Amino acid sequence: MDSAPTISTLALTRRFGELVAVDGINLRVAPGQFFGFLGPNGAGKSTTIKMLTGLLAPSAGRIEILGLDLQKNPVEVKRQIGVVPEGMALFGRLTGSEFLNFAGRMYGLDRITAAKRTAELLDFMQLADQPKKLVTDYSHGMQKKLAMAAAVIHGPKVLFLDEPFEGVDAIAAGTLKSMLQGMIARGATIFLTSHVLEIVERLCSHVAIIHQGRLVAQGSLEELRAGVEAQTPNASADGAASAPGEKLTLEQIFLRTVGGERRTDQELSWLG
Known about the structure:
By secondary structure, the protein is an alpha/beta fold.
C-alpha cells in the first residue's frame, strides 16, 4: 500500500488574464524523494513552485503538503517547509549572521538555538570569515549559499529549490549537493527545478516534466526512460540512432518528451 504523498496537487491551475500558465496539473511526490521538476522556459515551472510554497494563489485546484491543505493551513505548512525562491529574497542591509538569526527566529527557533545553527551554517557554507560583510556585498554564489542556509535553519521536512545552483561555483555546488543528499538520507523531501539536466539526473530519483502549462511526464527516471524508448525506439533526440544497449540520458528523455530538437539545418553566416 502506497504511503501518503508529501506533495500532491489536484487539477492545479493558474491563469494570468487569458494566459493559462499552469493547466490542471496533478503532481504526486512521495516522502523522501529527491524530485526534479523540469520544463522549457515559460513552461510554468516557477509559477507552479510559487503556488506550492504559498507565494502565489492558484486560480483553481488543490494543493496538499504533508497531508495539509495549503490554502486552509498556510502558516502550519510554511513552518515545516524551506524555500529557495528564484529571486532569493534576501535583506541586503543585514550581515549574513543577522539574516540567518532573523530567519531562525521567524521560523520559531529560540534565540540560543537560532544563534547556534547560524554559526554552524555560516561555517558549513564557508561564509564565516567576513562576519561584518553586508549581504548586499556578497557575490551571487555567496547569496545563493546564504539563501540555502536560511531555508534549512529550522530543519524543514520539505525543501523547495528554484534554480539553486545557478551562478554557484563547483566547490560551493559540491557543498550544497552534499547537504541535500544528507537531508534525503534523513527522510526529508526535496522538490528541485533546474535547467541543468546533468545535475537533476545525478541528484533526483523521480522527475516530472511540464510543457506549455501541462504535465507531460511523471515518474522515476527508469519509468520515463522506458516510456520514451517504447514510443521512439532506436532514435536519439537529433534523429540519429541510439547505440544498442545505451541508456537514454535525461537530456534525451526531456527533448523527446517536449518535442525539442537541436537546430542543425541553419547557421549564422558571420560566425564562420
